[in-house]
Amino acid sequence: MAGPRAGFGKSGSQAGLVRQGLTVVGFFVLILGLWEGVKFVGGDPWRSGEQVLWNPPLRIFFASDLNLPHVWTIVSVFGAPAQRESPISLGQFLVGAALYTWREAAIGFALGAALGLGLASLFVHFRLLERAFVPYVIASQTIPIVALAPMIAFAFGQSVVSVVIIATYLTFFPVTIAGIRGLRSPDPRALELMRSYAGSRWATYRKLRLPASLPYLFTALKISATASIVGAIIGEGPGGIPDGLGRAIINFNQAYITFPAKLWATIFVSALVGIAFFLLIRLVETLVLRGRQAPAV
Amino acid sequence: MTESAPAVVTIAGVDKTFEVAGQAGTQALQGIDLEIRRGEFVSLIGPSGCGKSTLLRLIGDLTTPSAGTVTVNGKTAHRARLDRDYGMVFQAPVLFDWRTVEENVALPLEILGRPKSERIARAREMLELVELQGFLRHHPYQLSGGMQQRVAIARALAFEPSIQLMDETFGALDEMTRERMNSEVLRIWERTGTTIVFVTHSIPEAVFLSSRVVVMSARPGRISQVIEADLPRPRGFETREQPRYFGLVTQVREALHGPQAQVATVGGPGSPARTAAEGAVG
Q: Which residue of A110, B105, B158, B176 has the lowest C-beta tally within 10 Å?
């Protein structure tokens, strides 16, 4: 009989992490290279003050300075004042706005995850409810959020509450669908085993269905983490929230024709918030699913 | 293990028909009468589709009979399940991969609401019994198939159910591991004095393990013969070399295939034996 299989390979996973980090950085550098490469071939003349440093041979419309600002223009705009006469830099402003939006998104995410898991748990235990309500759950997601957001803001007032509701709305759906799948994922014999112990529905749920569903739930939660950020950003407009990324995007959108770099910087920060939230959930997933056979992805 | 021991399971006139909507039902079991006494090791053997697993599941109240009664410890099978009279071991170990070996064995005790100290002590005791005391903190995937199955057995023993139901428990193991596991389960059975109902389709396994072998035939599933496996105990590797062992293996084989089995395997399509067998099936 074979002995226990070889250990987890702690050092191996650390090397893997370093390799992954290098890949991410390498890919980022590659994208920057492509970006500036396109501008080098088909952008506006590269200038330093009045002096033209490089005149690209072609003129490609999407590579112009208005459509695709230089990377260094975007980077430098972080140090510029957020608004004319503003005492704080755009960078400071965006960090504050990002944290504000993330807080809204996180509350919506938590509520959406709870709602999603709650619905999934109900549906798994009551087939009738599932048949009756799942079509509406799906239908709810086909309504464009831009149509729904003003209605929610009108109903719940121009406040953080509306923004949180919109973030919740975008969060709960993947969790519901994955939850139904995950709570049904146990081996039928595992369910029979619980039955042979005369385990209650609650015991079966807590000791079998819920733990078995976690890999599915975390997949959905990672999708929902980014969706909740999008929901909060979209909701801030109709919700009338001046402090988050959503309003910043609307403002810089209006100034885009003359100065696009600020919107690019804001988009960059928004993406960063989404990635950070995603990675946070993945970290939690790794910790929670430790010891299971399938490595978390 | 003697004739006078009280009955643990009494099955009387049991039929089981699986209903399929809009079609004639499939009769899985017909006219089953069987009594299993305390401390017995009873094997159910038969061709696939003979309903041996269904019979086991009927005893364990995982399904209900269409007719007849199943009495366990003087109660209905349903009541017995609610009283936690059963330990189940399936062909697959069905361990929970998010639990350590120790936590897996403690699972039924958690559901029974036993205090933590008792759960730990009992789980360790059971793992010692299956000789896995060194693997408490391991996760199931770190164990070989045979070790996982031993964890499943430890789990089934943990809450001291009065009857163990084993459904092709060693069916997925290789032959060498299987023989080792057979000796192991016999050792545990002798030490704990529990009652075991064991479904298998291995004739040597059934003969080696059992005090009685219940031979079943298919479509509809019924008991065709009950054979006393009167080999001396304790049984070990030398048991498999005794003439009486081979005699019993032959007896079970003939009960399964009928005395013309030899002819049937030799004869081609259309041979009398084969035609007869097909006629019996159809």
A: B176
Q: Is A39 exposed, middle or buried (0-12, 13-18, 19+ CB in 10 A)?
A: buried
**DSSP letters for A258-295:** T-THHHHHHHHHHHHHHHHHHHHHHHHHHHHTTTSSSP
Q: Is B154 on the interface with A (CB under 8 A)?
A: no
Does the structure show a pLDDT above 70 at A292? yes
Task: Count other C-beta atoms under 10 Å from residue A14's C-beta.
Answer: 10
Q: How far is CA B191 from the centre of its chain?
A: 18
CA distance B205 to B171: 10
Distance, C-alpha B266 to centroid of its chain: 32
Query: Does the interface predicted TM-score (ipTM) exceed 0.85?
Result: no
What pLDDT sits at residue A167?
94
Report the distance separating Cα A245 and Cα A229, nearest Å. Answer: 10
pLDDT tens per residue, range B103-141: 999 999 999 999 999 999 999 999 998 889 899 999 999
Contact A193 B90 (CB under 8 A): yes
E strand spans, chain B:
7-18, 26-37, 41-45, 67-72, 75-76, 86-89, 163-167, 195-200, 212-217, 222-228
Q: What residues contact residue B40 under an 8 Å CB cut-off, 6+ apart?
A: B1, B5, B8, B195, B196, B211, B212
User: Which residue's structure tokens are 């999603």?
Assistant: A116
How many other β-carbons are positioned within 10 Å of the β-carbon of residue A259?
14
CB of B59 less than 8 A from some CB of A: no
Nearest by Cα to A179 from A125, A128, A104, A105: A125
What is the mean predicted confidence (pLDDT) over B14-41?
88
Q: Torsion-angle region of residue B113: left (phi > 0), alpha (psi -120 to 50) or beta?
A: left
DSSP string, B176-224: HHHHHHHHHHHHHHHHH--EEEEEES-HHHHHHH-SEEEEEETTTBEEE
Residue with tokens 């049991």: B14
- HSE on the CB side for A239, CA within 13 Å? 30
Residues of chain A contacting B180 with CB distance shorter than 8 Å = 1
Count of CA atoms in the C-beta half-sphere (13 A) of A142: 6
Amino acid at A67: N
Residue A103 one-letter amino acid: R
Q: Which of A8, A187, A196, A207 to mutate to test the interface with B (most CBs of B within 10 A)?
A: A196
**Angle, helices B116-129/B145-158, rounded to nearest 10 degrees:** 130
As given in the structure block, the two tokens for residue B16 are: 């089981």
Place of tokens 């019993």: B248
Reported pTM: 0.84
Residue A191 to residues B88, B105, B253, Cα–Cα distance (Å): 12, 16, 35
Report the residue of B98, B138, B139, B144 to disrupt the A interface, i.e. the one with the largest count of A CBs within 10 Å: B98
DSSP state for residue B173 in the 8-state scheme: S
Q: B82 CB near a chain A CB, below 8 Å? A: yes
Does the distance separating the beta carbons of B84 and A198 come in below 8 Å?
A: yes
Give CA–CA dist A103/A80, Å, rounded.
26
- If you average pLDDT over every residue of chain B, what do you get? 87
